[in-house]
TrEMBL record:
Key words, A-Z: Pyridoxal phosphate, Transferase
Protein name according to UniProt: PLP-dependent transferase
PANTHER family: AMINOTRANSFERASE (PTHR43094), AMINOTRANSFERASE CLASS-III (PTHR43094:SF1)
GO MF terms, alphabetically ordered: pyridoxal phosphate binding; transaminase activity
Higher taxonomy: Eukaryota, Fungi, Dikarya, Ascomycota, Pezizomycotina
């Protein structure tokens, strides 16, 4: 699958038929959070592979941050997007115009919710979807009573909900919040995450662990005044903040019950864990605990277009319809035909090729392969995840679970090693998984159409990388 690269008048020609525009100087001008770095230049992609200007082929085992759910360069999606572009519709404001492809996408999404969701609000990113969900949740109570006392949200530590001010305010992610703390909403209150590796007492059963979490949420409602709480917000499987930590069985139902007991909404952020990533179309379907509002993103458009959405239950829709019937929101780039065309085709491929089932099967095998190779490694504290969404948490001491000194940048080292020769595979790094400030993990999140052989390859390379990184660290 390695593609040879040769010069071409438009940039580069790859032996696999792709032509790419050269952008070798791009990173000198692009403002990125890694201001001091330059990045390898990618010139093309196909399936699991990214082709680099330096001639290397990299196996993409993460699809960015769990985005590329059907791999790169899918011809069907490229055609669907081109077809819409070729209609001549460059842009439609979704506040004024309807469009068939947008309608079809919404219908398709509603169909996948087992009748639990009634409407879709399309956005251009996961953060925007969270912003819309925050405002929708507040509006539910405002419609009934404009002077409603409901002004508080409860979210969780060890969570990431996006980078805009509202979504960041929800996020329990100290490293990302720190510079902007003075601007973040002061009516978001955090309870602990559901992270058995770090929080479960010795011998504690799932049910008593869950009961402890429900009691903590109940106490937070009581502290704030139950009548002041708009909603509780959680990721069913925590992504970037902790590294693929699934909720303990029974947890989501227990938390939803606390919310509903107090008339508050239960919101799930499935931007990273949803749309098939965890082996069910929606992560909540694993235990059939449908939320009142749900955000989805990455796997919706598989990276082919910037597209995300809020899925809205009939309870919420009916309240809005019985009130003003309006959602006072709207953004220029939402519900665009070209975004919808990409997302619709990605979803059709996922459905026609039964890829969610493949995620479930290959996910179980990935777990098995990772455990076989890494469970005994002295610096691999935890291997956790679901579907094709797996995290490895690294520790200095496996018995005490002591994290590494952040100055060692362990997760970044693992990433740097994995994308370099001879490994040439992506692993998505993250920090803060131990206590918000310390702790290192990496995420593996390959495309849904991986084969058994791909899984073995990913697990073997991941294992080789981890062994090499810690061998070298030991020699420092
Ligand atoms: N919620 C979750 C759970 C996420 O993982 C992310 C992105 N990593 C977001 C929200 C924000 O999405 P976006 O980057 O598309 O704004």
């Amino acid at each position: 699958d390695k593609a040879a690269v040769e010069p071409h008048s438009n940039g580069l020609r790859l032996s696999n038929g792709h032509t790419s525009v050269v952008a070798s100087k791009q990173t000198e001008y692009l403002l990125d959070r890694n201001l001091h770095k330059s990045f390898p230049v990618v010139t093309g992609g196909s399936g699991n592979y990214l082709y680099l200007l330096d001639g290397r082929t990299v196996f993409d085992a993460t699809g960015g941050a769990a985005v590329s759910c059907i791999g790169h360069g899918n011809k069907r999606v490229i055609k669907a997007v081109s077809t819409v572009m070729n209609t001549g519709i460059s842009y439609l404001a979704s506040t004024f115009w309807a469009c068939e492809v947008v309608e079809e996408l919404c219908k398709n999404l509603i169909h996948g919710t087992d009748g639990k969701m009634a409407r879709i609000y399309l956005t251009g990113s996961g953060s925007e979807a969270m912003e819309a969900a925050i405002k929708l949740a507040r509006q539910v109570f405002y419609e009934c009573n404009p002077s409603t006392p409901r002004i508080n949200f409860i979210a969780r530590e060890g969570s990431y909900h996006g980078n805009t001010i509202g979504a960041l305010g929800m996020s329990g992610f100290p490293l990302r919040r720190a510079p902007y703390e003075p601007f973040l909403m002061n009516n978001v209150h955090h309870v602990s995450s559901c992270n058995p590796y770090r929080q479960r007492a010795d011998g504690e059963s799932d049910s008593s662990f869950v009961a402890r979490k429900a009691a903590e949420l109940e106490a937070k409602f009581q502290e704030l005044g139950p009548e002041t709480v708009i909603a509780f917000v959680a990721e069913p499987v925590v992504g970037a903040a902790l590294g693929c930590v699934p909720a303990v069985p029974g947890y989501l139902k227990a938390m939803k019950d606390v919310c509903h007991k107090h008339g508050a909404l239960f919101i799930l952020d499935e931007v990273m864990s949803g749309m098939g990533r965890c082996g069910t179309l929606h992560a909540w379907q694993h235990e059939d605990v449908a939320p009142d509002l749900q955000t989805v993103g990455k796997g919706l458009g598989g990276g082919y277009q910037p597209v995300a959405a809020v899925l809205i239950s009939s309870r919420v829709v009916n309240t809005l319809l019985n009130g003003s019937g309006q959602f006072v929101h709207g953004q220029t780039y939402q519900g665009m035909p070209v975004q919808a065309a990409a997302a619709l085709e990605v979803q059709r491929i996922v459905q026609e090729e039964d890829l969610v089932d493949n995620v479930k099967r290959q996910g179980l095998y990935l777990e098995q392969c990772l455990r076989a190779r890494l469970a005994d490694h002295p610096n691999v504290g935890d291997i956790r995840g679901r579907g094709l969404f797996w995290g490895l948490e690294f520790v200095k001491d496996k018995t005490t679970k002591e994290p590494f000194d952040p100055k060692l940048a362990v997760a970044q080292r693992v990433y740097n090693t994995s994308v370099s020769t001879p490994f040439n595979m992506t692993m998505y790094p993250g920090t803060g998984s131990a206590d918000g400030l310390k702790g290192d993990h990496v995420i593996l999140a390959p495309a849904y159409n991986v084969t058994k052989e791909d899984i073995e390859y990913i697990a073997q390379v991941a294992s080789d990388v981890v062994h090499q990184v810690f061998r070298k660290l030991g020699n420092l």
